[in-house]
Amino acid sequence: MFQTDITADLFIQASIETLYMVGWSLLIGTLIGGPLGILLVVTRKGGVLENKLLYNILNPIINIIRSLPFIILLIAIIPFTRFVVQTTIGTEAAIVPLIIYIAPYIARLVENSILEVNPGILEAAEAMGATPFQVIWYFLLPEAFGSLILSITTAAIGLLGATAMAGTVGGGGIGSLALTYGYQRFDTFVMVITVIVLIIIVQVIQSLGTYLARRVRRR
After folding, report:
1. What pTM was estimated for this model as a whole?
2. Contact criterion met (CB below 8 Å) for 146 and 55
3. Where in this chain does the record put each ABC transmembrane type-1 domain (predicted)?
4. Enclosing domain of residue 177
């Protein structure tokens, strides 16, 4: 039998902290990464707002940030995190690097989703005299909506893994619980439960995303 000193309240609190971090990071990261992804599409060569200079600035910046492992990014921007939220410990502090980590990732996912849109739709929009804004809002985004939902789902699952790493530097959540009670105290029960909780959360997120994407594509 497993023996542990941890209580159900701690598991519940850790789960709430994890969902809090994922929710806010995903929301703000999407608000930043979404427009960036759209800009990558419309400013590239042949885009409706082709701008070589802007594209050549955004593209490498996004690549550079995406190339950094989250744990390194987390530590590297500690001064910035302290400046923004006045602390480097806790869920609020973890949200700052999570946003910086996920925003360029979402930008790439959004870019890929929009690039999947049939070019014939854009040609038809331009033939009707649609403005660049109308092409983006009424043609590109609606056509890519199902794929965009799956992209955000993928980003949410990626964030979940990142929150676990945030726990190693006092970010709270399930990752912190696993480290403090499971690893440092050699509590096998805690490790098993945290893994199960993470699996359940991933399955719920993926199932919800798949369901919503399927509903959108049937319309």
Report:
1. 0.88
2. no
3. 15-206
4. 8-218
